[in-house]
Amino acid sequence: MKKTRVSMKVMCVLAVCVFSFFLAAESSLAKGMGKGATPRPLSDFIDNQGQGSSFFPPVGDYVGWADASFITFALVDYAGVAAQYLIEDCGITVGTKITGSVVEFPLPDGKAKVQVVLHTKNAMGFAQSIEALANNDFDFNATETIFGNKAVDVCSGAEAAIGQSRLKATFTINAGDSLPDLMDVIYTGDYVPWSLDFKAKIFEGKSQLEVDQKATADGVNEIWAKEEINIKEK
To answer: What pTM did the predictor assign?
Structure first.
């Protein structure tokens, strides 16, 4: 019992520290936002992700990643789209939790810059060979994974590979508009300029999937400064 009490005390101290950290972070963010900047609910962004379902139906679409050599494709559930599918359609939870912030900054032309930061714990992820995808005419659902398992397979009993991800994205909207699906930000050209910084580490047994991506677009040029995907064996 004494050990339990000590553990609970440590947990309480840690909780206070974490809470204090987030209060300080929010205060720092508020000071750095500038005049007219408006925090928006995280749900303004999260609820609009996964609008289409073209790649891994019936799971909603979200941004996938490739390495610079176009060898490996990776998908990490940064916005909880696959997690929601598993809960609603399969009665399965992998414990995905998302925290972060959304801030809208006014621009002189009536538009606004939006900054989204997502920290995702227990994010599900997997990887596929791009050569295998090409051989299957990019039928993503029909192509085997080389790391982790697809959400449709987890629904059927396969084990999910989970880990952590961090997404920082900026994009442009008409001030006050609803926030777009990140797929539309990157692929339609309607939300330039945009920027993207994404990192993830997903674990499966002694193996680890690492994703590190960074890109910007201004309507003329789209530059991917970092396109790294690595599968490491411990």
So the answer is: 0.85
State the average pLDDT for the chain. Answer: 89
Q: Which residues of 21-60 are buried (b: 16+ CB within 10 A; e: fewer)?
A: eeeeeeeeeeeeeeeebeeeebeebbeebbeeeebbeebb
CA distance 178 to 42: 12
Q: What's the mean pLDDT in 205-226?
A: 97
Judge whether 132 and 143 are in contact, CB under 8 Å: yes
Burial class (CB in 10 A: 0-12, 13-18, 19+), 133: middle
pLDDT at 55 over 60: yes
Distance from CA of residue 106 to its chain's centroid?
25
61-87 burial: b if 16+ Cβ within 10 Å, else e: bbbbbbbeeeebbbbbbbbbbbbbbbe
Owner of token pair 């930000």: 185
Residue 80, pLDDT score: 98
Report how far Cα 44 is from the mean position of its chain's Cα atoms.
15
Encoded tokens for 108? 């002189």
